[in-house]
Known about the structure:
CATH topology: Rossmann fold
Shape: globular
Distance between the termini: 48 Å
Structural class: alpha/beta
Helix content: 40-55%
Strand order of the largest sheet: 3-2-1-4-5-7-6
Radius of gyration: 16 Å
Strand content: 25-35%
Number of strands: 7
CATH superfamily: Vaccinia Virus protein VP39
Order of helices and strands: HHHEHEEHEHEHEE
CATH class: Alpha Beta
Oligomer: single chain
Amino acid sequence: MREHVTDPYVKRANAEGYRSRAAYKLKQIAEKDKLLKAGMTVVDLGAAPGGWSQVVAKAIGPAGCVIAVDLLEMAQVPGVTVIQGDFSDEATLGELERALENRPVDLVLSDMAPNLSGIASADQARSIALAELALEFSLNHLKPHGNFLVKTFQGAGYDDLVATLRRSFIQLNTRKPDASRSRSSEVYLLGKGLRGKAG
């Protein structure tokens, strides 16, 4: 609790109106890799409480489209369509596809994380499964040369996920933003430039 209260990013989030310190993870990656531009269509998976969606909505402006999905209830963010549901359920995926209205997606973000059981191997397997679900959605809905950013943890299944991303995107970068706590094993994988279907 003390770590949270004294965390500079928590203080900044409170001062600047962001719902979570995680907003700065996305801001730092997006600035470094020039991910967000006005008018984009962006899907934010694992969006609650909405810090990433706030960053995206501000960056892409009213001409853009942000659709946020989370199992947890999430208060509305101006300019964001919020879908509450389990992303692994067909019904939630269908709702997301209807909300897209056949728009090709410029960027898929996934900050999804499983409810932790405390059993490291099980938690790692669930984390990788969520990343693979997000990747599958990206391969089906990103426009050519679209981008995909996913949170993952190094461990079983990580190398296979990296290999799939390398095959699927022109460039793959690993990002550990300053706002990510140093003791956390999370890393973000950024696939830039979706390859053509034949690739």
